[in-house]
Design a protein that fits this description.
Structural class: alpha/beta
Largest sheet: 8 strands, parallel, barrel
Distance between the termini: 55 Å
Strand order of the largest sheet: 1-2-5-8-9-12-13-16
Shape: globular
Number of domains: 2
Strand content: 15-25%
CATH architecture of the largest domain: Alpha-Beta Barrel
Oligomer: single chain
Number of helices: 12
Helix content: 40-55%
Order of helices and strands: HHEHHEEEHEEEHEHEHEEHEHEEEHEH
CATH topology of the largest domain: TIM Barrel
CATH superfamily of the largest domain: Divalent-metal-dependent TIM barrel enzymes
């Protein structure tokens, strides 16, 4: 046996012995998941409706790198074709991992046992613009009290997940408040949605503020359903003095309200499976919306983003 061969075996043996002394977590630790932080453009909805390009420029200048849309109409994003909107985003060094488009039962054609062209176009355009997630933020009211119709809709959700998967994306659901006000069996409507959707096909985007006045507790849900919340709408809430808020609450600047937002975000990062955090502020207490989301971003950066 020559010297180089002996040296190789000795080195390999030492490496193996050293590895045996390492904790299993060091040997088999998975790569750290990539976290993304962005803003829901509904936060600056009035400005986006008047001047999308100028509004996105302001968002980019603040230091945001990711956005989420809330305007897809007639196959256009804020009036732009998918390719043109993607170029607009790219020119500003912005990416759009997700967007909100409501999917209803009318997007499914029973006679063909397939989605309508309208929903297929929604998914195709989302892929074209560069989304990773296609998120529906609503359920028809007529489903809430009809378990058969509700179960069928959950099946359609799963099928939408399969369709999105074909385009390299995932389908998702975003909660409001009614999911916690309404019961289905022994649990809430939200429990039913999570129990009847395939986690591999339907991600959950938890809106921690929408649920507050309806009895939903974000921290409890993160512990009850670990790993289920790929995305989160991060917001804080104050008691509403306008009478226009959701269940008596208005959103406010992060850290200024009644919610333990920092603790919720930490739990989401640790056990929620959350990698896509979306700042959303819908009311502003007399401040400029752009100033609000700028402060929100600064707060999240102080929290380690």
């Amino acid at each position: 046996m020559n010297n180089s061969r002996r040296k190789f075996i000795k080195t390999t043996a030492l490496a193996a012995a050293g590895a045996a002394l390492l904790p299993k977590t060091a040997l088999f630790a998975s790569p750290k998941k990539i976290e993304r932080l962005g803003v829901q453009l509904y936060s600056v909805r009035d400005a986006m409706s008047k001047d999308p390009k100028g509004s996105l420029q302001k968002i980019a200048d603040m230091g945001y790198h990711h956005v989420e849309h809330a305007n897809y109409v007639n196959r256009k994003f804020y009036g732009y074709d998918p390719k043109d909107f993607k170029k607009l985003l790219s020119d500003l060094n912005l990416l759009m991992p997700s967007g909100h488009t409501v999917m209803t039962g009318q997007h499914w054609d029973d006679s063909k046992n397939d989605f309508t062209d309208a929903w297929k176009h929604t998914v195709e355009d989302a892929a074209e613009v560069g989304q990773r997630y296609v998120i529906s933020p609503w359920l028809d009211n007529n489903l809430i009290k009809d378990t058969d119709k509700l179960k069928k809709m959950m099946d359609i959700f799963n099928k939408s997940g399969e369709l999105c998967k074909q385009h390299g994306m995932q389908f998702g659901y975003h909660n409001h408040n009614f999911e916690f006000k309404n019961k289905v069996g022994d649990g809430t409507l939200y429990d039913y949605i999570l129990a009847n959707t395939d986690p591999e096909l339907v991600i959950q985007q938890m809106d921690i503020g929408n649920m507050l006045g309806a009895g939903g507790v974000a921290m409890d849900l993160l512990k009850k359903y670990p790993g289920r919340f790929v995305s989160m709408h991060v917001k804080d809430e104050i008691k509403s003095d306008t009478g226009q808020g959701m269940d008596g609450y208005d959103s406010t600047i992060l850290g200024k309200g009644v919610m333990p937002v920092h603790d919720i975000v930490k739990e989401a990062r640790k056990n929620g499976g959350t990698s896509w955090f979306v700042i959303e502020q819908e009311s502003y207490q007399g401040m400029d919306p752009f100033d609000c989301v700028k402060i929100d971003l600064q707060t999240m950066k102080k929290w380690g983003f």
